[in-house]
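Minutes, project check-in
Item: structure for the 257-residue chain
Input as provided by the requester:
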Amino acid sequence: MVEAGGIGGAASKAPDESSRIFTMLENNPEVMNDLAHRLGVTKALSFYDIYSLYDSDMLAMVPRPVFALLTTIPMTEAWKEDRDAEDVGLEWYKGAGTEEPATWFRQTIVHGCGLIGLLHCVSNGVPSEMIVPGSELSNFLEKAVPLGMDERARLLSESESMYQASEAVAQKGDTEALKPGEDSIHHFVALVKGLDGNLWELEGSRKGPLNRGLLGEDEDAFSGRALDLGIRRLIDIQRKAGGDLPFSCIALAPSNE
């Protein structure tokens, strides 16, 4: 299933929402590969469709190691309750700089969650070391990483190169893009194995990066443990509430070419 993603939930004391409105991106490999390579991610990395999180034959179709998963998930009542309960005890992110274990972007851009989801996948873990020097993405991250949450969000919202790259791929999806005034219940969530070995859940509408647990050296972002700590955990939340969780999921891994 392929779904578009929306701006996500708002919360108090967050950075002001940007006046710039992006065209919604679709979570599929064609769109995200084009965007990633336009920005400066090496072509040695590519996104791939994931067709199952449980079937062993379908799991085996995905190239390994998987460095990150990019998912879109609808905001169900059960997931919202879980998020709200977790966020109550959290402060807004105050980190900045290369010493931080995860690079996270707060979303202030309307319909900018697809771009932010991609940035979370490629600016963390092994992919962060595979960005072409001097590229748009390399130059942008050089400016963004030292900044705090508000300034980093503002830099992204005002970046003409990021906006133009996102808009250039926005019409490649299979579904009709949302109009500027329309909202989506779907959220982009990135699940990335960081250089510190932890699985990081990164979403622009949360209060900061979320550490979901340490992975072994031989466990990538698509390992059984990573799936249980990440996307399967969200599926289980919905199942316990008595329903299914429709979602889309693509994996960032070495290119086959």
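Outcome recorded: Strands lie at 45-49, 68-74, 186-193, 198-202, 210-214, 248-254.
No further action items on this chain.
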